Amino acid sequence: MSVTTDHTVAIKYARDFVDFVNESPTPYHAVDSVKKMLLNEGFQEIVERNNWSKSHQLAKNGKYYVTRNGSSIIAFTVGGKYQNGNGVAIVGAHTDSPCLRIKPISKRTSEGFITVGVEQYGGLIAHTWFDRDLSIAGRVYVNEDGKYVPKLLKIDKPLLRIPTLAIHLDRSANTKFEFNKETKLVPIAGQTALDKNEKEGEGGGDADKEKKSSKCADDPALQMSAEQFESVQNVISRHNKSLIQLIAKELQVEPSQIEDFELLLFDHQKSTIGGLNEEFIFSPRLDNLTSCFAATQALIESVDQLPNEQGIQMISLFDHEEIGSRSSHGADSSFLPDILQRLAKVDLDGTYNKGAAVDFFHELVSKSFLLSSDQAHGVHPNYADAYEPKNRPQVNAGPVIKINANQRYATNSPGVVLIKKVADRVKVPLQLFVVRNDSPCGSTIGPLLSSKLGLRTLDLGNPQLSMHSIRETGGTYDVVRLMDLFKSFFESYVDIESKILCDHL
């Protein structure tokens, strides 16, 4: 393996990426971090609920972004030489990572401990969450004078831990670590004897039991007690009151203002650069914040060439990839198709009457290309036999083209030709990966969007170890390489694509 990237440059981008990860414990925070990067470079926010044609807010040389649900974001630039129907160079990635999420009713106690009910999200390596310093982050809806406003929460201190059982009580711990994910994967947050609210019986106990039943309808069969009603309506009754008070204090609001939230647990230990020669990034959420950061940085750095660009350059970062992408804002939703359709209907070059119902959508899609970027499996030195003998990507040896005959990845030969030419222009090394025939193969947003839109697609990503662990390992030098590859893609796509013939007259 040869590392030719300048160490100083690689470290600079790696440190920026580490900061990005540390500020982005949830998809909501990841989108917020991307927005801050874009706003700092003059990108303009547009809103789906507005009429883009009437507002006249899209134009050549423009830089824009649009969000959906606060956890997915699409950003794009319009070339100065763009003509209606020209293609879009798209880099797609996902903002979510496997984790533990707080249940809708999380309040519980056991053996004098305050515990928190959590739900597994995605295919996490669950045992890596034991004996870690955990904290809480997410989105909280707050009542501000009758308006319900989302606020980002990130409590930057250790709050919870899932302790393992001492080896003295389980002699098989080193040979067979098995556990029930409902009863054993439960974090402790405190002790009832030391909790003021628990001692006073607040937020659950005799005080609640004394509440009288209240009639909810004339039909007696539909009556419910105030306690039953409050269990849905009042967030304080569903969670430990001390936790609610901590959240309120962090957001500088009253507990009574909190209407609801979506909170998850994250590893409080920071992402960092490590290794004997600073060649590794030890971090949570490399999958797939690496691609989100590299794509955003590449889009920003390619704007210098915007006056000469003939197409649209776009990043599309989705929530919910880890659970199948089927949501209103996942890759299998209408988000990307909606944005492309609206771009195809907006007159960006003045070639047709503003009132005409001209639609360049199919022309635009047929000229477009998606790089579906998701982390890849680098070869593990202790488990080398788990990899296909001839396709063994190395960490710090460049982005990995992912291929699967059964279309778990969307890569095909025209796409490989394209990415090779894109990489050649900036001297970025590429690697190849296929999974063993006796091993299952994961998938990405690539096949979903390719089949949904008829969009030409290639799957690739940076190599890493310990994918879906609470702590993953990636390469310091690979961050800048992926960014350089995306930047070259944005700047050279129209020229290279026109030379790769497929379904042309």
TrEMBL record:
<keyword id="KW-0645">Protease</keyword>
<keyword id="KW-0482">Metalloprotease</keyword>
<comment type="similarity">
    <text>Belongs to the peptidase M18 family.</text>
</comment>
<feature type="compositionally biased region" description="Basic and acidic residues">
    <location>
        <begin position="195"/>
        <end position="216"/>
    </location>
</feature>
<dbReference type="Pfam" id="PF02127">
    <property type="entry name" value="Peptidase_M18"/>
</dbReference>
<keyword id="KW-0378">Hydrolase</keyword>
<keyword id="KW-0031">Aminopeptidase</keyword>
<dbReference type="InterPro" id="IPR023358">
    <property type="entry name" value="Peptidase_M18_dom2"/>
</dbReference>
<keyword id="KW-0479">Metal-binding</keyword>
<feature type="region of interest" description="Disordered">
    <location>
        <begin position="190"/>
        <end position="216"/>
    </location>
</feature>
<protein>
    <recommendedName>
        <fullName>aspartyl aminopeptidase</fullName>
        <ecNumber>3.4.11.21</ecNumber>
    </recommendedName>
</protein>
<keyword id="KW-0862">Zinc</keyword>
<dbReference type="InterPro" id="IPR001948">
    <property type="entry name" value="Peptidase_M18"/>
</dbReference>
